[in-house]
Amino acid sequence: MAPPLTRRTLLQSAILAAAVPGTGGAAASAASAASTATALPPPAAWALQPFPLDTVRLGAGVFAAKRQLMLDHARGYDVNRLLQVFRANAGLSTLGAVAPGGWEGLDGEANGNLRGHYTGHFLTMLSQAYAGSGEQVYADRIGTMVGALTEVREALRHDPAVLSVDGRFGPAAENVRGSHRYVDLPAGVLGGAAEVTLAAWVKPTHDGNWARVLDFGNDTTRYLYLVARNGNGVPRFAVTTGGPGAEQGLDGTAALPLNRWNHLAVTIGGGTGTLYVNGTAVARNTAMSLTPAALGTLAHHWLGRSHYASDPVFAGAFGGFDAWSRALTADEITGLQGARVSGDLVSYAFDETSGSAFADSSGRGLTATLRRTWGAPSHPGFLAAYPETQFVQLESMTGSDYTRVWAPYYTAHKILRGLLDAHLATDDARALDLAAGMADWMYSRLSKLPQATLQRMWGLFSSGEFGGIVEAIVDLHALTGKAEHLALARLFDLDRLIDACAANTDILDGLHANQHIPIFTGYVRLYDATGEERYLTAAKNFWDMVVPHRMYGIGGTSTGEFWKARDLIAGTISATTAETCCAYNLLKLSRTLFFHEQDPKYMEYYERALLNQVLGSRQDRADAEKPLVTYFIGLTPGHVRDYTPKQGTTCCEGTGMESATKYQDSVYFKAADGSALYVNLYSPTTLNWAEKGITVTQSTDFPREQGTTLTVRGRTASFALRLRVPSWATAGFRVTVNGRQVSGTPTPGTYFPVSRTWRDGDTVRVSAPFRLRVEKALDDPSLQTLFLGPVNLVARNPSTSYLEFGLYRNAALSGDLLPSLTPVSGKPLHHTLDGTEFAPFFEGTEDPTHAYVRRAEPRVVFGNSDSGVADPAKADGTTLLDEVWAGAPFSAKGALVSRVRSVVDAWVAAGLLGQADGEKVVSTARGATFVP
After folding, report:
1. What is the phi/psi pair of residue 74, to 5°?
2. Angle at 35 between CA 32 and CA 40, to 5 degrees
3. Residue 819, SS3?
4. Other CB atoms within 10 A of residue 355 CB
5. Measured between alpha carbons, how far is residue 806 from residues 460, 525, 893 in Å?
6. Which residues of 184-213 are buried (b: 16+ CB within 10 A; e: fewer)?
């Protein structure tokens, strides 16, 4: 259930409803969501402010269609699967749920060392889904997850408690896989016996080799153990006083069945050892000279834990453990199958249903204790899906090893962010309490470490990655006001990176891209909180080092997750370019920087990356199990996008879930003083600007429509409507209000202001004609990517070599290359050229595509008239046609012919073109027919 409404949120809802007359439908849903929403206070340093997600409704169009696919996934996926790893870590019942697997499973990459991160992403997705749609189902799911995480933290704060399940003869004790729990028996269990029988009822739930049923010993030299599966997958008992090479053992003959109760017993007596499985002797060793007495006094007597640190903890249930001071007969072992019989050395039925102590019914009073292999959290605020071990180990690491420690503070960030978003969306105080507790715990750890240790940790590739945790902590501080929380955010300063970027020194070559991009969004937020200029300066300079110097046409960056040298684009294209997380995080950084400095370049990038890579990273089909989001987007010729990357539940699938539920978050911004409304993106949306008492609705099918119509409804309000004039809108951008053209000249790459007192029903029409243009790879001008307005067009072709195309053959006087292509009927934005179809990158298909093509203009052609003259080139690759068309747009054909004459004369004079060929070129231009 959603948490009850507070007086404050009820008042917010009432104000919102009263502010805008005559609104219903989507607006009513917005009010419903807003009724349980909490807003972060905007920083004083921001000249612009965003609108809450629940005040901007997304209308029908390409974005809404993609979002609906993700909303359906958010609505249908079983959240208990996400909670499984958390509940397991706390020793709680997992309710039969199966962990998602991949990065969220113990069998996934690096042993699942990143598990828990995906739950944070999912919480953020649900929060945005609720804010954006107002549907209660998302709030309910948030409540379920927050409630479960609250129970998890409470369990971690206490000694482990038995998880009681049905056993062979009554209650039994289960240790869920991932709980890292074992039973610690007191010293003297075996009493120095010369003969012994060890018997246990176990129900293994996982087939991991070498998980101990029991391990009694000092170390890895003197011990005895019993495992359900050895390296060959069969039960084994061994005893040694000289390590593994001196083991005297007994090996079974068949694997122990999973999820069934099995009885294992070992007898040692008279130099003979026998292993029984379910009452049947399966192995005998008549040369077993070692007995418990030979081991002497042992330090540890464990059920479920090994002295070898790399061995897994036993996953499954214990239904009893008994030890006798003699070797039971075969008949006696058989008799144990039908009834419980207590051993005289020790006897545990594991029939307790609470607490962490197990009674001994042998009469010796040797009470056993349930423990965690890793002890207990260092602070009551600790919350994770794995032990605190990774955080501890990171503090002493000098080199990266993600199989040991994989970005624990990165995972902590995802959980913290998800909890904050859950609180902001639903006003659930439990979520804020969990988030604040996590920050208190992190501060208790990190504040004790020397600066040198922190700098070393944060400089480690992967292991020391911490994602956007600084941004999340500063946001938390804005809610709690705790000085320790702001101090915690500053403990993540990576001084080498900050200082270099603040000095505008590019040190990005060789760095992991996504490890560092979100850092800077956090540093901007630290500037907001502290006023320290170096944070903001570093972030601005960093952005400029990436865009455009390490940016592909679709807005993505990185190759194989790393950056290479500045301005190396063609030389880095591979099947593993453009990690999707990088685009997600660059969008966050761009919008945050724009709040400070209204440089249109930030929103230019935002449109590019959102409309192309981010939108295109989501496949255009439904799936209940997976979000269908790319990890890498390979830009090699003929690449087919992989929407089910790696083993699943990856970082990019997580950020992809978030991106698809907040497409509208940067369409509109407002001036901090309310004097202006910035329209950054053209998208079918409805803004509810409660302070002004108005709504602003964009009606458009952009980018399938080349423009938009904005309608203002509500009260009379005065403000400047600042419309972004995209840099690609080089001709024909036009603005009318109520049918009358607005005076002034819109300049591409700026904002065009329309200042007036707006009245109910005022209509603004924006025309933004698209043109086909190319963008050249910085290090290879012949390798180019095509754009129709803001839309990246990719060639669909299975060839794995770069396709060659000429584009000047029918170029328009305006310089538009589109007339050289043929539109595809009934398929907006689709065109063909030389038999190859070009389609928008944002379409999430599995077609083999070419994002880059090889530009080849073999002969000089004007208006589809071929001069027969080879297109000559300068040493830098610039061709004669390049130089001619660089003068576009041309007011008329005569202006173009004059340009051709001047260029030809210059090239003839430079010896780059023969006189006769030059005249052919001019004659062809003069005789050709051109599209305006």
Report:
1. -65, -35
2. 125
3. helix
4. 12
5. 47, 47, 21
6. bbeeebbeebebbbbbbbbbbbbebebbbb
Distance CA 66, CA 80 (A): 25
Angle at 685 between CA 679 and CA 687, to 5 degrees: 70
- d(CA 34, CA 706) in angstroms, rounded, equals 33
Number of alpha carbons in the 13 Å side-chain half-sphere of residue 83: 25
Which tokens in the block code for residue 708?
Answer: 């938009």
Q: What predicted TM-score, i.e. pTM, was given to this entire model?
A: 0.94
CA 754 to chain centre: 39
Q: Furthest-apart CA pair in the chain: how many Å?
A: 114
Q: What is the pLDDT of residues 345-371, one digit of tens each?
A: 999 999 999 999 999 999 999 999 999
Give the H/E segment covering residue 166.
Answer: strand 163-166
Q: How far apart are CA 216 and CA 911, in angstroms?
A: 90
CA distances from 2 to 53, 132, 320, 436 (A): 19, 16, 43, 21
Measure the CA–CA gap between 203 and 841, rounded to whole angstroms: 52
**Which among 732, 721, 742 has a CA at the least distance from the CA of 674?**
721
How many H-runs (helices) and E-runs (strands) does the chain carry? Answer: 24, 39
- Give the residue from 676, 668, 764, 697 showing the smallest Cα distance to 22: 697
Whole-angstrom distance, CA of residue 200 vs CA of residue 319: 7
Q: Based on the number of CB atoms within 10 Å of its own CB, is 137 exposed (0-12), middle (13-18) or buried (19 or more)?
A: middle
The alpha helices in 427-468, defined as continuous H runs, are 429-446, 451-458
SS3 at position 365? coil
The C-alpha R_g of the chain, in whole angstroms, comes to: 34
Of 664, 596, 609, the residue nearest 64 (C-alpha): 664
Angle between helical axes of 136-156 and 79-89 (0-180°, round to 10): 10
Distances (CA, A) of 217 to 86, 224, 231, 245, 484: 31, 6, 20, 16, 45
Sign of torsion over alpha carbons 419, 424, 427, 433: positive
Amino acid at 740: R
- For 618-675, the pLDDT digits (tens) are 999 999 999 999 999 999 999 999 999 999 999 999 999 999 999 999 999 999 999 9
